[in-house]
Specification:
Elements (H helix, E strand, L loop, with lengths): L8 H14 L8 E5 L6 H10 L4 E4 L6 H13 L12 H21 L6 E4 L8 H14 L3 E4 L4 H4 L4 H4 L2 E6 L5 H11 L3 E2 L1 H11 L3 H17 L5 E2 L8 E5 L4 E4 L3
Parallel strand pairs: 1-4, 1-5, 2-3, 3-4, 6-7
Antiparallel strand pairs: 8-9
């Protein structure tokens, strides 16, 4: 599969939201939410966006506590450099380091004319932990650093319980299933083989616009194409009775039928 990045409609919305966040009117409204059910490509898109600037990307873990949350953010800030700070089991120690490190990185980015941000994925793991959320809000408030919260479709509803956090959100981007033109663009950009229009239409219908299933389908097409022993255009008829991907909605393999 080719290592191309495809600017789908979801990615365009993400980029527009991020640009608007950087140009916000209220300095304290530094939070952005990227939401949508699993499998739509949020992680890949936001990780890519984080690499386009002097930003860090952190993935939350199940069982995060305030101390481990700040510890993981501290690790991301240290990156591959020599660790000048030993992660603590105490929240206050980790928070103090994160605050100072974020402040330093933000100042350095401003000097270079860049916008430093923090991307936090899998937010659903801690969306009901008020202390973690308020700590993130405080970092964003005091340092005026944009923080992008990426979740699995429940952030908006969950944040109703935390109005002091919700009020800081200036941008909300919701990923949607890919439409047929985006499906075709992704397949054409990533697949090692040409894919006929009839197979493209079949993929768009059966994957229901989910990026995860779409990439599985592309991998299956490539394996099939390589077995043919020559570069060719892969049609739907050629792949009759072949498995394209695992359909999570049906908990079964999606097989091409005539």
């Amino acid at each position: 599969m080719k290592p191309n990045f495809v600017t789908t409609e979801n990615v365009k919305k993400l980029m527009l939201g991020y640009s608007a966040l950087k140009e916000r009117g209220a300095a304290e409204a530094c939070l952005m939410v990227v939401d949508g059910v699993p499998g739509l490509g949020k992680t890949h898109a936001t990780a890519w966006l984080s690499t386009q600037s002097e930003s860090i990307y952190v993935r939350a873990r199940k069982g995060w506590t305030p101390a481990t949350a700040m510890g993981d953010i501290a690790k991301a800030l240290q990156g591959g450099e020599e660790r000048e700070f030993k992660i603590s089991r105490f929240f206050e120690t980790n928070y103090s380091y994160v605050y100072k490190a974020l402040e330093k990185r933000s100042i350095e980015a401003q000097r270079e004319g860049l916008e430093f941000s923090v991307f936090i994925d899998e937010v659903d793991y801690f969306i009901n932990d008020g202390k973690i959320l308020e700590s993130i809000r405080d970092l964003s408030d005091f340092l005026e650093i944009p923080i992008i919260l990426i979740g699995m479709g429940k952030i908006r509803k969950s944040l109703v319980r935390f109005p002091q956090v919700a009020s800081r959100i200036s941008q909300m981007v919701e990923f949607q299933p890919l439409k047929q033109n985006d499906v075709a663009a992704v397949v054409n950009a990533l697949c090692d083989f040409q894919v006929a229009d009839d197979l493209l239409a079949h993929i768009a219908e059966t994957t229901r616009g989910y990026m995860r299933e779409l990439k599985e389908a592309i991998a299956s097409i490539e394996k099939f194409g390589h077995r043919q022993g020559q570069a060719t255009t892969i049609t739907k008829e050629m792949m009759i009775n072949q498995t394209l991907f695992f359909d999570r909605s049906k908990n079964a393999a999606s097989i091409v039928r005539g």
